[in-house]
Structures are given as C-alpha cells and as structure tokens.
C-alpha cells in the first residue's frame, strides 16, 4: 500500500531544533528557531499573558464550545485594527474581513488557498525568504512559484534596484509576497521611501500584495511603525491580504493563534471573501482554537492590559537590540576577519550572518552552536552569558 512512500526531507528549521535538544553539551547554543528567550536562556511567558490566562481559566463563564468558522470576533476585529490602524479607511468604511487562523503559517496557507481559487496561481517570493513559504504555496497548488531579488549579499542589505526591475517585469495580477517587517531570514527591511517606490510599481503593474506579518512590534519596538508598509499600501488603494501571527509578539507559539485580514474595495466584497475563507476553514480546521485568541482579545481590547503588553514587547525588542550590540562588540574586540556592521544594521529577530553552509555545519560540530544552514542567527537565543562563547565560535570558524 505504501510502496511509494519515501522519507520526507527534514524541515530546515525544526530539524535543527531537535538536534539541539538531543545535544548533551553544557555549552550548546540554540540560535536556530525564532523563539524569544530571556537573558537566562528560558522561554518567557509575558506577565500580561500569565495574568489573562489566569483570568480566563478561573472565569465561571469558561466553556469549550465551538467558535464560529471565522473565529472569535473580538479577536479578529482587534487584529485587523492592530495591523491596519484604528483609523484606517478600510476599517472605518468596513471593507475588510478578518478570519482566525492557525497562527501565521495557517494564515499564509488560508490566504494561498483563497488566492488560488479566486485570483491567480503565480506568486513571487523574496529571495531569500522564510523556509516554509515555498512549501505552503506548493501544497496550496500554486503552479508558478517564482522568486524576486531581495537581499544583496555584497552589501548585506536590500537589493532595491534589482527588486524594482523585477517587479516591473512581472505579469499583471501576479501575487507578490512581502514580509511586513523584520524580514525572516535577513533582518533587512525596505525603508519607508523604498516601500513607497515598491508600492508605486506594484500599482502601475497591477500586482497583488500579500503581506506576512509575524513580527509586529519586534522590529522597531513600535506596533505602528512595524505596520507602516501594510498601511501605506492600503492608503494607496490596494486590495491586499495580510497574515498575522501572535507567536512571537505574545509568545503564544504553541497556541497557534493568528489571523488573515483582507482589505477589499467594498463591504459587500469583504463579506463575500469572509464567507469563502470560512468555507476553507471548515474543510481544513473546521473552527479555530479558542485559548490563544481569548488571551489576545482580552489584551488588545483593554487599554491597561494593552499598555502592559507594549511594555513587554519593548523589553523583548530591546534585549534583542542589546544582543546585536554585544555580539558586534565582541567580534570587533576579537578582530574577527570580515565586516560585521550588518549585525547592528539588520533588525528584528534574525541576523543573516553571511556564514557559509560549511561554516554553519562546522560551528555545530565543533562548538555545539545551532543555526540554520543559511547562516541565519536567532538573536533571541543569545544572552549575556553565552554571547562571548558564541562570538568566539564565529571567530574561530571564520579563521579556519
Ligand atoms: C522561524 O523562522 O524560526 C520561526 O518562524 C519558526 C518557524 O515556524 O519556522
């Protein structure tokens, strides 16, 4: 029956995580998976999340009834406002829909399933992009999954000229996937004037934007600033999709809490889109899980809790920035060959070090340092205790 089944290739991110867990070395360092850690190297349940969790669990009203197909309304409404802005014309004119998803991955997949049915089967992904994007669009049945230039390895920054030239050459209606902020894996985002340039070409060429937003609040520490790209496209009159994840900014990794928001031209269209998204949810997950959405909803809808959340977000973003500075300083002190400015120039959870695959394998074998083979480092895995060791490992590998 299963003669044709072969072993699937390991996931480039989760496989490194399981190898790290098996490693018994006392000095091992996990900078593979993008998950926040404290300065003690421990996962962090945000104090406001813990507080709200207790409120929910101890509430006499708690039940485990099904949510509607599009999820918890107080959560999806608040999610749309969080990304688009409370005063967005799309929100004020009620021409959007927001549907709960299985975190960011589920939101991208839901969007891909929808676009494949109702829009176009050509999608352009940035090169490089999050390791899962290609597979999501493949599994959704996209026939043309192409890439556009994004990162320039020479400058370790944005390849804006090539990016724009490529946009100009795309065929009408193509879907172009963008990371709203804190690009994964490079940590390189377009500046506001570059987003403006990109949006202008997208409009002229009638291209369709799909934003993946997994790090709102993590890039700059400001929720509004990190939503700038999406809001700018909305202001320019685009219809668009945006996938939101609450894994990182709420630390709700295992609760799989996310949302797909669609900005449309009219309220009637938004309602039609909503019903189609519900129909897809029904066959894939039936109805979304409630716990994470209840937590996020309470926080986003209560000004005091919201303030507490923002302060934790700033703390996480600040600690990551500090790690960038410390790593950079250590490498400079060691005189490590190469230019390391990009460590402090790049933003968000990741640094794209520029280390080769061979160097990444070497650093794993010799120093028990786990990073993806692309040279991506999750800065949240560093702390004041391991950053020196990590810098030393890089220094030695670079000199080998
Ligand atoms: C990552 O890129 O490490 C995270 O987004 C985790 C994941 O799902 O890949």
Q: How would you spell out the order of helices and strands?
A: HEHHHEHEHEEEHEHEHHEEHHHHEHEEH
Q: Give the helix level as a range of percent.
A: 40-55%
Main pleated-sheet profile: 7 strands, mixed
Tell me the strand percentage band: 5-15%
Number of domains: 2
The CATH architecture of the largest domain is: 3-Layer(aba) Sandwich
Provide the spatial order of strands within the biggest beta sheet: 2-10-9-8-7-3-4
What low-confidence regions span 5 or more consecutive residues with pLDDT below 50?
Answer: none
Oligomeric category: single chain
Mean pLDDT: 96
Bound small-molecule species: (2S)-2-hydroxybutanedioic acid
CA-based shape: globular
CATH topology of the largest domain, what is it called? Aspartate Aminotransferase, domain 2
Number of strands: 13
Rg over alpha carbons: 21 Å
The helix-and-strand class reads alpha/beta
Number of helices: 16
Condensed summary:
With about 400 residues, the protein is α/β, with parallel strands linked by helices. The chain folds into 2 domains: about 15-45 and about 315-400, Aspartate Aminotransferase, domain 1 (Alpha-Beta Complex); about 75-300, Type I PLP-dependent aspartate aminotransferase-like (Major domain) (Aspartate Aminotransferase, domain 2, 3-Layer(aba) Sandwich), CATH 3.40.640.
């Amino acid at each position: 029956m299963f003669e044709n089944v072969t072993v699937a290739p390991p996931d480039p991110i989760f496989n490194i995580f399981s190898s790290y867990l098996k490693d018994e070395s006392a000095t091992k360092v996990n900078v593979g998976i993008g998950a926040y850690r404290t300065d003690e190297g421990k996962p962090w349940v945000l104090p406001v999340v813990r507080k709200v969790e207790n409120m929910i669990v101890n509430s006499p009203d708690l039940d485990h009834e099904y949510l509607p197909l599009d999820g918890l309304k107080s959560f999806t409404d608040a999610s749309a406002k969080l990304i688009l802005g409370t005063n967005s014309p799309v929100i004020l004119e009620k021409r959007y829909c927001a549907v709960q998803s299985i975190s960011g991955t589920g939101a991208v997949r839901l969007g891909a399933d929808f676009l494949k049915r109702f829009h176009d089967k050509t999608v352009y992904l940035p090169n490089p992009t999050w390791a899962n994007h290609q597979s999501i669009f493949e599994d959704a049945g996209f026939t043309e999954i192409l890439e556009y230039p994004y990162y320039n390895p020479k400058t370790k920054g944005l390849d804006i000229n090539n990016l724009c030239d490529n946009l100009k050459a795309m065929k009408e209606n193509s879907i172009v996937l963008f990371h709203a902020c804190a690009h994964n894996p490079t940590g390189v985002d377009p500046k506001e004037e570059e987003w403006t340039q990109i949006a202008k070409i997208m409009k002229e060429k009638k291209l369709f934007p799909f934003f993946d937003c997994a790090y709102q609040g993590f890039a700059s520490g400001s929720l509004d600033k990190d939503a700038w790209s999406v809001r700018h496209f909305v202001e320019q009159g685009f219809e668009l999709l945006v996938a939101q994840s609450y894994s990182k900014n709420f630390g709700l990794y295992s609760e799989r809490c996310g949302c797909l928001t669609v900005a449309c031209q009219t309220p009637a269209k938004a309602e039609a889109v909503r019903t189609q998204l519900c129909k897809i949810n029904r066959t894939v997950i039936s109805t979304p899980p409630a716990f994470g959405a209840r937590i996020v909803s309470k926080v986003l809808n209560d000004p005091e809790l919201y303030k507490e959340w923002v302060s934790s977000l700033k703390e996480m973003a600040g600690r990551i920035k500090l790690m960038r500075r410390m790593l950079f300083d250590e490498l400079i002190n060691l005189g490590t060959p190469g230019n390391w400015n990009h460590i402090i120039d790049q933003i968000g959870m990741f640094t794209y070090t520029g280390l080769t695959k061979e160097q990444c394998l070497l650093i794993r074998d010799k120093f028990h340092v786990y990073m993806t083979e692309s040279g991506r480092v999750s800065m949240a895995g560093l702390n004041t205790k391991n950053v020196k060791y990590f810098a030393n490992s890089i220094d030695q590998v670079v000199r080998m």
